[in-house]
Specification:
The radius of gyration is 25 Å and the shape is globular. It is built from 20 helices and 24 strands. The protein has 571 residues and is an alpha/beta fold. The protein binds zinc ion. Zinc ion binds next to loops.
Length: 571
């Protein structure tokens, strides 16, 4: 076990601790922060200065005052050269395993791919690095974002490769574009009938054009090489490195949409060196009637620590299974979020995707098993129903971990906001949706309505608990997990193309950082992350430039110099 003490000095630390937001030196021992504060009066050499700061440090380790004595805890000092340090960023709502399995594929959307030429080029590049036997895969395209304003067809993809099968999934996951090689392998030609519940796209001459809708996707999917659990775990490891490069030290997985019980894949990845901390949820739909699901796995830090904790019981836990998740409606960009009035120009209000009884049943289950209940509710009607059903319940989890959490909150009613504030039910939300999917927000809601979405300023002023997250990969951006893009959206209230998203709902950068750190840790059951404070895990990020000094519209470009998890440099 690591017992060295490391002192980080000469830095500007934003702690996310409301009692002491700023510091300029920090000591780390055994993966946790043992001291943080003002280095004034602390002579760095040997830590043998007098003064309040040194005294603080001495309390945690008496040997600190006399480094020449037989010190069992030698101190190493790291001068950070005046750089800015923030707590490790926490994305409290992602679909991490899904995202990990895309990570080696082509991100077929801006800022990486803007048109068919760039898509073909990305395919050629992917082919050069392709592992034996794999297909070229891509994800995330949206014809609204492509210069040609149409879906890629087989001939577009053939310009990238005719030798290797290519499959590019649309952002919605329901439509795929494939090249001629993939059609050939699947045996799809002009004589192939449309399968039930699916359509094979065709040109005017009846020849398949490579665009497969709904169940027609399966005609190709069944020939694709299966992803083994080892390969998934390896993808997680690769993804963990990407997350670390973005300063993300913890993520929450809000459910594997295939119903896979995926804890063992995360744990396998951890054995392979995946370091990101994880709060993994189970989808209620898949476990409610599953006799093989063991609810004992659920819990918030009670019982044995899981993941890394088992191997090093003293170490901060790496994975928790905080609870269950229920999906209450659709999405604004998909025109399916359940509203209290019709989408403009239609008589369509979106729709609920579960019943009130489902929410009641899940709530009872969560109470019986002392775990969290998370409900996806994006539109006003879905939010009202969820908050109505939950706000008067007596919490069964100890603060600051919330008993309930609500996901994707976009346009809550006044009553829902007030009840959420009074009962402490948090809103886990994604301003990056509006930033990256502005085209569909404008089309589905119009500009005036769009500007009232995600009113985070109002929530904070009312005292609602809020956490920021990305929902990657369900975010139309090439690096959907990028926390800096998300924070910029919340601070500037401007979309990627400059569209005004409602200036009255701006929040400050300090607030955005707090919502990405201190507020996000407890959302996913962790009690020791998100704040740089004595006793907390030493998860922190050193930035290349001072994020507090750059213009607001350049926050998304801030680069991470290094990332630490439990005091160890992981990037
Ligand atoms: Zn989600």
């Amino acid at each position: 076990m690591k017992t060295d003490r490391t002192l980080y000095t000469n830095c500007k630390i934003f702690t996310s601790d409301s009692e002491r937001p700023w510091a300029n030196a920090m000591a780390v021992e055994d993966g946790r922060i043992s001291w943080i504060g003002d280095a004034a009066g602390l002579a760095v050499t040997g830590l043998d200065a007098t003064g309040p700061a040194a005294a603080d440090l001495a309390t945690t380790n008496p040997a600190a005052t006399n480094p020449d004595a037989a010190d069992p805890h030698p101190t190493q000092t790291i001068d950070l050269g005046g750089r800015t340090v923030i707590p490790g960023l926490i994305d409290s709502h992602q679909h991490c395993l899904l995202m990990a399995n895309f990570i080696k594929g082509i991100a077929a959307l801006p800022p990486r791919v803007h048109d068919m030429d760039e898509l073909a080029e990305a395919i050629r590049e992917a082919e050069e690095n392709l592992e034996e036997g794999r297909w070229i895969e891509g994800w995330g395209y949206d014809e609204g974002k492509l210069k040609e304003k149409r879906k890629p067809n087989r001939w577009d993809l053939d310009r990238g490769s005719t030798a290797t099968p290519v499959v590019i999934v649309r952002a919605c996951q329901h439509i795929v574009s494939v090249n001629s090689k993939a059609l050939e392998i699947a045996g799809i030609d002009r004589n192939t009938p449309d399968p039930e519940g699916g359509v094979i796209g065709r040109g005017p001459d009846g020849e398949p054009d490579g665009i497969l809708y709904e169940n027609a996707r399966n005609l190709v999917y069944k020939y694709m090489p299966k992803l083994t659990e080892e390969a998934s775990a390896d993808n997680l490891k690769v993804y963990g490195d990407v997350l670390a490069s973005k300063g993300i030290t913890a993520i929450s997985d809000l459910g594997e949409l295939t119903g896979l019980k995926y804890g063992h894949i995360f744990e396998k990845a951890m054995d392979m060196g995946f370091r990101t901390k994880v709060g993994a949820y189970f989808l209620w739909d898949f476990i409610k009637d599953d006799p093989e699901f063991d609810p004992e796995v659920l819990g918030i830090g009670e019982g044995p620590a899981r993941g890394m904790g088992e191997k090093a019981p003293e170490a901060p836990p790496q994975i928790l299974y905080p609870g269950i998740k229920l999906i209450g409606d659709g999405s604004v960009s998909g025109h399916t979020a359940w509203l209290d009035r019709p989408y403009p120009g239609t008589d369509d209000c979106g729709l609920p995707t579960c019943t009130a009884k489902d929410i009641e049943d899940a709530k009872l289950f969560a109470k019986n098993h002392k775990c969290q209940l998370s409900v996806h509710c994006m539109g006003t009607a879905a939010i009202d129903r969820t908050i109505d059903l939950l706000y008067s319940a007596k919490p069964w989890l100890e603060a600051p971990v919330p008993t309930f959490r609500t996901e994707h909150i976009t346009m809550p009613s006044e009553t829902a906001m007030d009840r959420a504030a009074a009962s402490g039910i948090p809103f886990v939300t994604q301003p990056v949706f509006m930033f990256s999917e502005i085209e569909s927000y404008l089309e589905n809601l119009g500009h005036e309505w769009t500007k009232t979405c995600y009113p985070i300023r109002t929530w904070l002023d009312k005292g609602v608990r809020v956490a920021l997250s990305t929902d990657a990969p369900a975010t139309a951006w090439a690096e959907p997990y990028d926390p800096f893009v998300n924070m910029q959206a919340a601070v500037t209230r401007r979309a990627w193309d400059g569209t005004d998203l409602g200036q009255d709902q701006r929040i400050t950068l300090e607030e955005a950082l707090r919502l990405y750190t201190a507020e996000s840790g407890p959302m996913m059951g962790f009690r020791d992350i998100g704040v740089l404070k004595e006793g907390y895990a030493a998860d922190f990020v050193v930035l290349e430039e001072d994020i507090f000094g750059v213009p607001e519209d350049e926050i998304s470009g801030v680069k991470v110099l290094s990332t630490y998890i439990n005091g160890e440099k992981v990037f």
